[in-house]
């Protein structure tokens, strides 16, 4: 649904005032666009893929009785998602 001209003008005025009053909040709200959402989805899918691949490596290393493959699988399944989640969480605190 399209906004009327006066509604668009009011909205632009609110955005301008917000940018002047609280530039940090304005920047954070600007990041909530579709690019941010698509980046979050890609990150989530990549973390799920790392987890599944890591579990597959743990299972393969156990089956083959070759512990280095299992260690790589554990790092991939647990370590990578933990580090990425930690960094995303810390970035959100700024």
| Overall geometric form | elongated
Strand content: under 5%
Annotation, overall tally of beta strands: 0
What percent of the residues sit in helical stretches (DSSP H or I)?
Answer: over 70%
Overall mean pLDDT: 85
Q: Give Rg in angstroms.
A: 22 Å
Q: Which sequence of SSEs, written as H and E, runs from N to C?
A: HHHH
User: Sheet with the most strands?
Assistant: none
Number of helices: 4
Flag low-confidence runs: none
Could you say how many structural domains there are in total?
A: 2
What class, by secondary structure content? mainly alpha
Query: Ends: how far apart?
Result: 35 Å
Structure description:
The chain has 94 residues and is mostly helical. The protein has 2 domains: 1-30; 38-93. It is built from 4 helices and no strands. Helix 3 (34-64) runs antiparallel to helix 4 (67-93). The longest helix is centred in the middle third of the chain and has 31 residues, at 34-64. The radius of gyration is 22 Å and the shape is elongated. The protein starts with a helix and ends with a helix. The relative contact order is 0.08. The mean pLDDT is 85. Keywords: Membrane, Transmembrane, Transmembrane helix.
Write a brief structural summary:
This protein is an all-alpha fold and 94 residues long.
List the helices and strands and how they pair.
Blueprint: H1 5-21, H2 23-30, H3 34-64, H4 67-93
Keywords:
DUF3040, mainly alpha, transmembrane helix, single chain, 94 residues, DUF3040 domain-containing protein
